[in-house]
Amino acid sequence: MDYESEDAVALKSDGTNYLLWSCMMRNFEIEGELWDYVSGSATRPDPKDKNYINLIKNWESMNATALYFINFYVDCSLRKRLDHIKSAKDAWDYLAGLYAHGDESNFAKKYRLEREIEAVKQSGFPVTGLYRLMQCYWRQLDEMEPKELSNLESYMKYREESRLVQLLMALPDKFEDVRKSMMERSPLPTVSEAVQELLIVEHRLTCDHFSSISLDDKDCPAKKTNNDQTKTKRRSRRKKDSPQSTSSSSGLASSLTPDNNQTALSTDQFRSVINMMNQVESDFFGQSPLESGMYLPPAREGLSVQDPIKQSDKDYQPSSSLSRLASSLTPGNNQPALSTDQCDLHKSVHKSHLESELFGQSPLESGRYQPPFGREGNCLSMVSSAVKILSYNVWFQDLEIHKRMEALGELIQLHSPDIICFQEVTLDIYDIFKVSSWWNSYNCSVSHQMASTRRYFCMQLSKLPVKSFSCKPFINSTMLRELCMAEIEVGGKLLTVATSHLESPCPAPPKWDQLHSEERIAQAKEAVKLLKKFPNVVFCGDMNWDEKSDGKFPLSDGWIDAWADLRPGENGWTYDTVSNPMLSCNRPLQKRLDRFICNLRDFKLCAIDMIGMEAIPGVSYTKEKKVRKGVRKLMLPVLPSDHYGLLLRVNIQ
Question: In terms of Cα–Cα distance, which of 649, 374, 391, 396 is closest to 499?
Answer without folding.
Answer: 391
